[in-house]
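Meet my pick.
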Amino acid sequence: MSQKKLKVGVLGATGMVGQRFVALLENHPWYEVTLVAASANSAGQKYADAVKGRWALKTAIPSATAALAVKNASDVDAIAREVDFVFCAVDMSKEETAKLEEDYARHETPVVSNNSAHRGTPDVPMMVPEVNPEHAAVIEAQRKRLGTSRGFIAVKPNCSIQSYVPALHPLMKFGPKRVAVCTYQAISGAGKTFETWPEMVDNLIPFIKGEEEKSEQEPMKIWGQLAGGKIEKAKDPIITAQCIRVPASDGHMAAAFVSFDRRPERAEVIELWRSWEPKPQKMGLPSAPKPFLTYFEDDARPQTKLDRDIGGGMGVAVGRLRPDALFDYRFVSLSHNTVRGAAGGAVLTAELLTAEGYIQAK
């Protein structure tokens, strides 16, 4: 990377994920937040005033961002002239978000999105950078469809899958055929804190709207193949999921069960987890944790409170690998849902796309 930082805008900057973007990008070696945008209700205020009383993070608001005047995220033409690319975390309907992101892309401004609106679009890469970095190649086909030379959309997947999919990926050579998973998901995944959602104290809710469908379907695109300018979904493994909201502030835990075509030895699985060095780690990208996966032999680990911040919140913690009576193996895994699972995953995706030349200064 050159010494000059790219100018970054954060759309939806006042929400919880937008706040996480702002915090993670403070002092980033490649990027500088030069613009924050939100709804018309916040437009015109200083960022510090717009988030006053609802800043959800334990760290302070970055001083450089605090003084920025919030723009209206819908003012695409003006914002596109001021930044090299944008991160998107707007709170809008799926249809409105899809249109907004395409508008930015057509204004030759790459979009790296936390939103779900384009996760099903066949020529939009949905990336966990360690798992499917090759999907970036579909961007050229997307640009042809949009009629752009530099604008495009890339998305990150749902936070619910980002603990167990990375753990399964090094094992794909053994042919996983059936996966059952139950996720135990923190309240920040709903954009809440215990102060704003006191009903979650001492409580579990066995339903998160749309989450189980995403948990079952999104991995199939991530494990899919590029063909004819689009990503064709994988057919295996078959995944069934249950997603439960639990009284944790941050961190999504998964209890996963898996059957293989060719059952590996337990020691072989653990060695693959511990030795795996994916592309972002080999490239030394700024947000890539080393190691990506950490396996614990202690049966009481990983724990949400102890281990969600592993690798600066970008790592995945795995434990309790053991034989299962119905499947070949079962294990538990944990990831930080608003860092790896949201803003941090998008930042790492942008880093990969920058390193490979898809995102450049205007």
